[in-house]
Amino acid sequence: MSVLTRPVAVLVGLPGAGKTTIGRKLARRLDVGFHDTDQMIEELEGRAIPEIFATDGEPAFRAIEERVVGEALETVDGVLSLGGGAILSEVTRERLRGHRVVHLTIGVAEGVRRSAGSTRPLLSGGDVTARYQALLTERAPLYREVAWTTVTTERRSSGKVVTDIVDRLESGDPHARGGGVRGGSR
């Protein structure tokens, strides 16, 4: 696969949508590197994201995130996974234009289940389902704004999701379907 833009693909979506799992498998399938901006932030800051949120607050974290995402979009040649809230930044959304942004979607119940027991600051405390629904309501239009293509991870194996993404990347068609099955009525 020839690389026309860097990175090859940028994964966005809510917590639990599978950005890291799918990202790693997609990178292996494409024989490229995998980079996660949350991990890059933690390495840069020498602290875990929950600690940054607790100590410095969300606005300070978002400023760091915006800078790290901007640098990654310029330097990463492989698959890049963004933190779930990275698209809140208008600057980041503008920087994503022209990139092959893959929006991974998931339903609220499954997202809550997959995120259970995590240290995600925006999902800690209170009614996690209500918090997750609020994140979905706030972010869904922003994900759609930046998405080149959208792929659901709900009730699908990671292998099928990766095949869908690879088919779309290789064909240049954001609506291509994985697995070679193209027929059927609609």
Can you characterise this structure?
This protein is α/β, with parallel strands linked by helices. The protein contains eight helices and five strands. It has one domain (9-174): 3-Layer(aba) Sandwich (Rossmann fold). It has a five-stranded parallel sheet with strand order 2-3-1-4-5, with helices on both faces.
Tags for this entry?
alpha/beta, single chain, 5-stranded parallel sheet, 8 helices, 186 residues
Query: CATH homologous superfamily, by name?
Result: P-loop containing nucleotide triphosphate hydrolases
Name the structural class: alpha/beta
Compute the average pLDDT: 87
End-to-end span in angstroms? Answer: 31 Å
What is the CATH topology assignment? Rossmann fold
Total of helices: 8
Strand content: 5-15%
Major pleated sheet? 5 strands, parallel
Overall geometric form? globular
- Widest β-sheet, arrangement of strands: 2-3-1-4-5
Instruction: Classify the helix fraction into a percent range.
Output: 40-55%
Number of beta-strand segments: 5
Number of domains: 1
What top-tier CATH class fits best? Alpha Beta
Secondary-structure element pattern, one letter each: EHEHHHEHEHHEH
CATH architecture: 3-Layer(aba) Sandwich
The gyration radius over C-alpha positions equals 16 Å
Low-confidence spans: pLDDT under 50, at least 5 residues? 180-186
